[in-house]
Every structure is written in structure tokens, then in C-alpha cells.
Amino acid sequence: MGIYRRNRSYQGSITVYLSLILFLVLSMIMVIIEGARQTTARIFAERAFVTSMDSVLAGFYGPLMEEYHLLGLDGSYGDIEINEDEITSRMNDYMSYTFEPKQGLSGAKNRSQLYGISLEEIQVKSKTKLMDYQGELFVHEIIEYMKYRELGNIAEIILDKASMLEEGQKVSILYDEKLKLEEELVVIDEGILALMKYIDGLSTGKKGIVLNKDGSLRVESKFVKKILYGPPTIDKTGINNELIFKSIKNQYVDPSIRFSAIEKDFIRIKEINELIVKQEENRHEINNKLEKANENLQELDQALAKVEKGDKAGKEAIKKSIKEAKKEISNLEDEEKNCGKNIRSYKKDIDSCISSIHSNASHIITLIKECKSQVNKAVLELEQIIKTAKDFKPLINSYEETLNKEKEGLSEDIYENLIKDLEELKKYELESEKGYDFLLMKEILERDYDLLETCISLLEKANKELELKDFISSKETYMNANNKLLSYETTGLNIDYSSLLIQDEKTPDFLDNVKELIDEGIVSLIIDPDTISDKKLELEGLPSSLLGLDETKRSFSFSSMFSDLIIGANVSCDGGLFSSFDDLSLSSLLSDTANRMIEGILIQEYIDEHFYRFPLENEDPKANKPSVLTYEKEYLLCGKTSDKENLEAVIMRILLLRTVLNFTTILTDKGKLKEAKVIASALVGFTGLPILVSITRTILLITLAFVSSLVDICALLKGKELPILKKKIDLDFIDILQVSRGKIQKEASSYKDSRGFSYDDYVTLFLYVRRKEDLTYAMMDLAQVNINLRYGTKFNFNNCLFGYEAEASFRIRPLFTRFSFVQQYLTEKINQSLVVRAEYSY
């Protein structure tokens, strides 16, 4: 019995053991299978998610592709703003067909889903618009579209033709710096103009020499060189202009004349004093005789009293002697009176000589004091000139360095002319051997000032000695003053009057006619205003306005330049013409990297293919697609709200370029340069300011270049091509006075077409150097308004997506681990959400 019971307790133990092992094996297999299924489901869900994003972007906006070959998703789906719900809804639809391929199909049987994937939520986390990143995405799509297409002639324009602008660029840089130098030097010229007044007595003002009503030169009453020993000559006065010399000739004063008169008066005083001495001696003798005569008379009177009454004959004899004695006394008294009278007369002569000496000395002192005051003014003016010249030194050194640096890019004629102008400017340097020695002039004047002060002191001392009637000392002091004044130096104070020109005939103002025409409108001179499109663009809601890319920089204006131009003005005459030429950024053409250049060329090719420009003569714009603006390229370039404004702005830009280029050509024409200087001298030569003559010459050259450029642009708009740099300017200065719309049209029609730059080439060139961001958003503006015009839609680039980032959460139901005996052994939950995030773009 015991054995039986022991054996029974072990029955089925193997079965239980094997069952437990089987349970563990099955659990392990199910977990492995479930893990594989879960991984596959995750991958399947992720791929379905990415595919749905791709499918959403596959619904790109058709009109944008049709018209401008660009991919973009209209994320608004007809709404005002981007509709994220619509995007997620579409993604949901696309994924639902992935998870349930047969949904919606009639007769299709729903089979059990192996993966058990369910979508819980979809969110759009971020969006990238086509206009984001300063338009780089927009440009990227353009490059991708254009890079496999054959390039046209734009590469030739950029790489070949545009290189010919280099000389004009260099000239603009040099002349901009040169005009600033000349403007600084006008201060020195004005100082020299003041020196003409202080040193040579030529009446001058800020605008030059001053004339009398009869047209003669006005002369100052006091000036440094007024003291001049000997007769005045051109050589002695140092005036190298005969007209000025003749006008001032009678104003010079020779102090030696008055000093000689003073010396003569002293000689006369000496002579008179000698006569007085003689008279005094004679008077003394007469008084002695008179005393003796009176004593004799007294003795005779006594003798008469002693004569006896009866001695009648003796009495008569004594009376006769008394009578003779009285007669002698009377004669002696008369002689004594005459001596006294003569002495008094001689003393009056001495007083007259003294008065004459005082008068001459007073005139000399006045002359010296007047010269001294002018010497002081001249010294102060020279100090300002010297200070300006010192400040000017580094500027002219900088200009010279720039000129030498740019030498290789300049023609020989232009470089030669600029070197000549530089030599003229260098005359204003302190150490110049060809110009004024301002330091020496100041040194001379300071010595003269001290000398004049010494002379005044000597003359005043001599006057005091004269008052004390110390004639010997006084005369010696006066003569010392004369000898001192002989050292008065004016030789090194010569001023150059060679550029001073006085003409009776009035020279015509070459700016008046041009100013009147400009006031009527520059564009109307070269094109019929009635032919210009009146289309306008509303900027509200456009990409450029949304990002605030409206240009606020003040551009160069010919109207303002000519309005400010005044013949004879001492300020910069170009109104920023040459510096504005550099603002065109044409220098970047030669410094662009290969990648930047290729990108720019591809963008220009794209613009050439998709946008219109101003139609030239014999071109019919009716063949073009409907567009909000007719002159689209002009808008891309200038960004104005109307066709008229954009066309005017482009014409002004070409006019600026052509004016500088034509100015460059004129610099190679020695005949026109010489003629311009002659006219400038006639216009402002009366000022005596060489720098002002140079500035006026530049004004004339700019004006001629401007008028020639009007003709050039008129020819360009007629469809002709012109050389970038002409060999010669056909117009003459007389044509400036005769310019009119009719003349411009006639001259333009007579132009022979030659290989060069066309209007289209200029526009392409300007577009190439335009800031890429501005150009990009301007293209978006036109694409947006044109699509809406042609398709009647409300497309907006602000709703146009290039890509987006989304996130979805999925639930993957467990299949092989749903048994409780399996789940109790799992350390982690299988039934968790799967979160997937991805980015997708074109």
C-alpha cells in the first residue's frame, strides 16, 4: 500500500514540466513575432506618413508652375491664410488608403489587419514659405529650373561687354575725388583773391574782382605794395597783367619824394638859421652903434647946454651935430627894426618848414600805417591758407596714389589730362616750386610788419624832436626812418594774374537752356509721353511690401544737379554724379565669384524668359500675356508703383551711366578740353580763381556729356545699339545752347547702328547688379499679381509653401501579445503611441 501511494504522487509530472516548457517557448515565440510585427508596423506607419506629406506637396499650385515654372503649395486652399487643418486632413486621407487599401471599393472584403495601425493625431509643426530666407528658396527653384537650359547672350553681356565699363568706373572714382579736392582748394583761391586786395590793391569780393559802373577795375586806396620807391613798372610791381597794372599804376606812392621834401626843409631851416645868426650879429652891431650914437647925442646935448649965449656959431654947429646924431640914431633904429623884422620872417619860414616837415611826415606815417594794417590782414589770410594747404596735403597724396593705382585701366589721353590737372593742384602745396611760396610770403610780410612798426616809431620820435626844435637829431631820425623804409620788401609777394580775364562781351550761360528743358521733363525730351503706359500696381499684400523692402535711399537726380549748378559757384559741381556712378555697383561685375556670376546669369535668363520690358520702336506689346504692368523688367529694377515711374527711373539710370561714359570720352578729346577751358575762362575768368575756372570747365564737360547722353538714350529706345565707350562725341558746345526735343530726335535718328549695348543690355546689366533680395521679392510681386490677373484667383506668396514639418501619433494594437499569460511576463507595455515627425519640401 505504501509503495503504491508513493508512485501515484509522481504521475503527470513530466506532462506538467513539458507543458511549462511549451508555455515558455510559445511565449517567447509570440513576443519575437510581436516585436517583428511592431517594428514593421512602425516602419509602415512612418513611410505612410512621409508618403502622405509627399502627396500633399504633389498638389502644387498649377498656375505658378504653368506661368513661372516654380513649385509651390497654395497652403490656403482658397482661404485667406494657410489652412493647416486642410493639410492634415489630406494627409489623413492619404494615410487611410495606405492602411486600408480597399476602403470605399464596392465588393471588397474587409480582412483582418496584420498591423493594426490607427492614426490618433496629426499636427503641422512648422511651415517654410517660398518667400522665406530672403527669397533664397525662390531663387533655388529658379536655378534648378534654369541650370539645364542653354544660356543666351546674357553671359556675353556680363562677362565681355560690361568689362568695358571699367574705365568709366575709374574715371568716376578719380573725378569724384578730384572735385572734392578742388572744392577744398577754392578756400585757398579765395584766400589768394583776398591777397589781391590786401597786397596789390585790386578790389575783390567773394565772387571775384569788383568793377566800377563804367566797367573799369575798382582799386583800393590802401594795400601792401603801395609803398614803392621809384617809378612803378610791371617788373617792379610784380603784376603780370597789363590791364591791372594800368588800373593800379597811379595808386603807388614813393616815400622818397616826401623824405626829400623833408630833407630840403631841414636844409632850408639850416640856411634860415644861418641868416638869422647873421641878422642877430648885424642887429648887435647896430645896437652897439645905436648905443654910441645915443651917448654921442647925450654929449652933444650937454655940450649945447654949456655953449655961451654969445657963441652963436658954436651953438649952430652943435645943433647941426645933434641933428646929424639924431638922424644917425633914426637910421640905426630903422636898421634894427629891419633886422628884427627879418628875424621874425626867418622864424616864420622855419615854422613853415617845420609845418611842411610835419605834413610830409604825417603823410608818410599814414601811408605806413595803412600798409601795416594791410600787411597784418595779409598775414592772417596767409595763416589760413597755410593751414588749409597743410590739411590739403594728405588729400592730394591720396588722390595721386589713386590715380597711379588706376593708371593701368585708363587710356593714355585720359591719364595724361588727369596728370596735368594734378600738376595744377599740386601748385597749392606749401613746398611747390611752381606755385605760390605761402610760407615765404608770410615770412616777408612779418618782416615788413616789424619794419613798418620801427619806421612809425622813428617818425614819431623825429616829430617830437622837431617839436623841441632839435633839428639835427630830428633830421637824422627822419633819414634813419627813410633808410629803414628802403628795406621794405615786396619782391616775393607776386600774385599770378594770368588766369584773370576781363571781357566786354557777355558770354552766354550754357546752363539756362538745359535747365529750362529739364524743368519740362527729361523723359519727354527723348520719348513721346503719350506713348508711355499708365498702368499702376497696388503694393498692398505683395511680398516686397510685407517684408518692408521699399527703397528709401535717395537716388541721384539730374534735375537737382542742374538746379543747383551755378556758373561761378565755388562748391562741388557734379551733384553726386560720379559717386552715384559707383553706387550702381558695376565694380562687382569684375569681382564676382564664378558661382555668384553663374547664379546671376541664370536668374537673368529666367527673367528674360518670364518677364517683359519696355517695347522699343516697331515692337508690339499686344503679343504679350496679360500683365498688371507692361514694363515688368523696369519694375524688377526700380520697384516703383507705376510703369511711368519705373521707365523714368531706368532712363535716369542709363542717363547717369551714359553721362559718365561720355564724359570719359570727352576727356580724350584735346580739342574739346581746350575749348571748354576757353569758355570757362570767359565765364569766370574775372574772378581770378584758377580752381573756379577748372570747376566751371568740368561743369561744361558734364553738360555736354549729358546732352549727348540724351541723344544716346533716344537712339537706344529706337532699338539701336551703341558702343559702350564712344571714340568721339559728335556734339559741340554750341549744341548745348540749341538743344531741344526735335534736335535730340533728329540726332538720334542719324545714329548708325553698331555692335554695342542695346536698351535691353542696359536693363539686363542693371538687373544683374541689383540687390538679389530686392530683385527676388519684386519677381514674386509680379508673379502673384499676374497669376491672379490671368486666372482670376487670389493667390498670395505669403500662403505659398515650399515645405513643412508635421508630427503624427499612431496606435499599433498588439496581436500576439494580447494573451494574459504573455503580458504578465512583459516588462514594458507594447500598446503605446508611436510619434513620428518629419520634414518634407520640394
Characterization of this structure:
The structure is a single chain. It is elongated, with a radius of gyration of 55 Å. The chain is built from 30 helices and six strands. The strands form two sheets. Strands 1, 2, 5 and 6 form a four-stranded antiparallel β-sheet that branches. A two-stranded antiparallel sheet has the order 3-4. By secondary structure, it is mostly helical. Helix 7 packs antiparallel against helix 19 (577-583) and helix 11 packs antiparallel against helix 13.
Defining traits:
mainly alpha; 6 strands; two-stranded antiparallel ribbon; about 850 residues; 30 helices
**Cα distance spanning the termini:** 89 Å
The largest sheet is: 4 strands, antiparallel
**What's the count of strands?**
6
Rg value: 55 Å
Helices, by number, come to 30
> Residue-averaged pLDDT, rounded?
86
Portion of residues in helices?
55-70%
- Shape summary: elongated
Model regions low in confidence, pLDDT < 50 over at least 5 residues:
1-5
Protein structure class:
mainly alpha
Strand % is under 5%
